[in-house]
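Side project, low priority. Logging it here so it doesn't get lost.
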Amino acid sequence: MYDFAYVKPASIAEAVRALGEADAKALAGGQTLIPVLKQRLNRPSTVVDLAALGLAGIRVEGGVVTIGAMTTHAAVAESADVAGAFPALAKLAAMIGDEQVRNRGTIGGSLANNDPAADYPAAVLATAASIRTTKREIAADDYFQGMFTTALEPDEIITEVAFPIPRRAAYMKFRNPASRYAMVGVFVADGRAGIRVAVTGAGQGGVFRQTAMEQALAASFSPSALEGIATPPDDLNGDIHGSAEYRAHLVGVMAKRAVMAAG
């Protein structure tokens, strides 16, 4: 660790002003930021704690599940409203990390960080969800811009995420056995934006859509429709836990399982 200023704004306007200062960094659940600070991979001059802004909460109305940015993964997983309206999202939240991570990590923090192995980006992209901020509303297709990169501006704060409730959906992931992050996760959704397949954990640039699978499922929503559809390994991650070719294979396996669960 090293010295930095710490502020805990009481209002969104105050938080936005604090983040407008040079080298300021927002703190949500801290599940990514705190380890990064300990390793000195990020050295902000000011840490802006968002805990007092009242951005937690869940509501279901008009065919949309809206989740406040500071809502924890555990709250999403345990919500009867989410389980009733969008069970695939509740199940995804229940698979994030371990109990400690789920009780501290937040949906807004996960999306703002855009870790390439995070789970929520797959749900957001597959359902064509909207990320609402202090400045605007950003469509999922415009929000994710690469590994740890989003459309957010430095002084822009996610306030809530709006998920159109799909007719059917499921998320399946192959977990790292130690940390349980997604080596490969596939979210399949049939909703207002049509059939969409989002892949996390595999791509070097973060979450992406598997459009060939989307087209096949639009013709026949069944696991067999995905036979013979390969994901090119060229832009996929490879490490000690699995090669790019192995992850490419897992995309197909997880996609079939997700379609089976959704159907």
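Brief comment: The chain is about 35% helix and 25% strand.
Revisit when time allows.
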